[in-house]
């Protein structure tokens, strides 16, 4: 197998192919373009390796890697068709939420290597005040800047990335967005001093390098997308194992702006981002994706409405869900534009907006269809619905976008199952008092839109009703207002919407009929293939998507006329109920006064506060808690409750507690709190949810037991003297409690055992006093990493440590451990005889899901075995226990 020469066109695309006797001929291959989002380097090694090894060719693909240049938007390149696939930042979820028809194939990096380079050590985000940050988007940087905003005194300046590291070296910018896999090595080689500000240190986590295609390609060519994905994953598997060979191939075939040593250094670091623990290469977790979207919402990158409408499952490519036949796929490919017979004035279902064009409920459905099918639906309007219907009857238009399957229409159209249903309603002024049967309209003049189902119904079945044919709904309702008609017959939702939009006063709904507007999509009888496609696509719309569209447009206000008899029937029972309730109120008030004094005493004894669950702020405090905390009662009211914690809680733990309270369950645990003057105390905290009359949890009662003295005595017996961490004795006590608590609260239990690599060399080379300092430094970093109130860190012997925590998924636990491993390495504690010349750690981890069980002895043996495996396989790595290994 050998590499061909490089072909570079004026468009800066680079095509490299390999040939073997078993490969398909170039003529038979499908040519595809992949737009990357940075310069050619090991960041895209999986794709280069797949070219090198012929994986793409074996899959029938001829892959052309399109070079990046400043200003290129990967999402736009893919959507426009200028590229078939693209590699872009995690902000692709924002592009999708805002309507770009993208399909997410895989994530090259399980967590992002994006960092900020700095000219000085950053210990406080307030240091970013009035500084210039050069970046090109990305959740990591955007989230970090968002976290810094409340801390800075002066505005942070941002500039679009030039892609030129020299701007940072020359001091043109204070902070420069870079990949930890790339620029740091280059700066070290150049002797340029720098510091790293890592967003992950501030809790910012997300995927890196999304691989996407267009919805059109994903729908019409799912086999091609699947083949590309599988070959790319094989490429990454090869690149990780054969780093030198892949680097040489890149240098030989692509315009690389860095040295071979730099590429090799990048390769070594990149591998840990691509493959973490047992997580498959390219894996996408919908929950983690949703968390990224939630971050985007907090940053204002997407609106709350866009977030609510977002369906991450629909964003992720799944070839198993390709339910179109070859004939249907061929039809879509050969018909990029499909015409819709649409009503220009039938809001809220569909109408022609002067600014936005085709709008309404049906329009939203077809916009969703466009994203699913990769075709364009073109709405065709006329000055009257009757003309549009005539054009459709003559075969000039493909689809009725929203219509009732009447007998007349069924003669030339087939219909899908109804996707909207509303009652037939009658609007009138004072002329018609009430009607629930059409025969009651005999002798009255009823306005109907010509060509509508209501027109066809009255014309064919109730000839005794006088009809006033109008061209649209507004004209029909105005005819009732000005007296030309006694009533208007039509769709209830349309009447309601139009009346409110145009301010048509004096009209009310005086009748609803058994017949309903069962609105469906009609397709020409001569086109059964298109009917099948539309029905399948309609079936794929989730209930959440249907609800979001419906709620965006429909706010029904139904008017019902009540006669005197009905009013009397309602009034008498209500009067008796109210009288009875008033009697109970007097009794209740007396009992309440008696209870109030007792409850006040209880609240003072328990240092109670009341917290608003939505805002997480204190809304009331007892006098005793005010004294305990050092604040006044007035100061406590309105204070964020988490501000009272000694070191705060991370978002994951807050969400766990929040969800439990929201479900109506109490939470309790020990917590270290801080006083106003900076002191600390320990409490046993109990959070009890309070429900309103509707059963919704709105506030939380927090009660406390002061256990400060007890904790001080415990601290002496359970603490390691050197590091200040808990000791092995305390681990034996805590682990049993944590196992029971995890089972009780139905949450995961995460355990990690850590060992300082080559620690003997530290003691031998620098002496035991220095070795003790190293142990303290590592212990400090462990404490910073596992800093939640429910986290525990122990020194279990020598240079071995152990941590207990909880994460919502194994992937997130692995990410956390990987970040810790990097942070220890980045402390740059010298160990000159070790392979990397700095202190590193090996980690053995275990993730125990809520439905899995192990006893404390099994847990300790398992993480110890994983730690041993990590050390045996080269150290400075993580090995995770697989639950199937339990014997």
From TrEMBL:
This is diguanylate cyclase. PANTHER family: DIGUANYLATE CYCLASE DGCM-RELATED (PTHR45138:SF9), REGULATORY COMPONENTS OF SENSORY TRANSDUCTION SYSTEM (PTHR45138). Keywords: Membrane, Transmembrane, Transmembrane helix. Its EC number is 2.7.7.65. Gene3D superfamilies: 3.30.70.270, PAS domain, Periplasmic binding protein-like II. PROSITE patterns: GGDEF, PAC, PAS. CDD domains: GGDEF, PAS, PBP2_BvgS_HisK_like. Pfam families: GGDEF (PF00990), NMT1 (PF09084), PAS_9 (PF13426), SBP_bac_3 (PF00497). Residues 747-883 form the GGDEF domain. The keyword Membrane applies. The lineage of its organism: Bacteria, Pseudomonadati, Pseudomonadota, Gammaproteobacteria, Thiotrichales. The chain crosses the membrane at residues 570-590. Residues 667-719 form the PAC domain. It catalyses: 2 GTP = 3',3'-c-di-GMP + 2 diphosphate. It comes from the Bacteria. Residues 611-665 form the PAS domain.
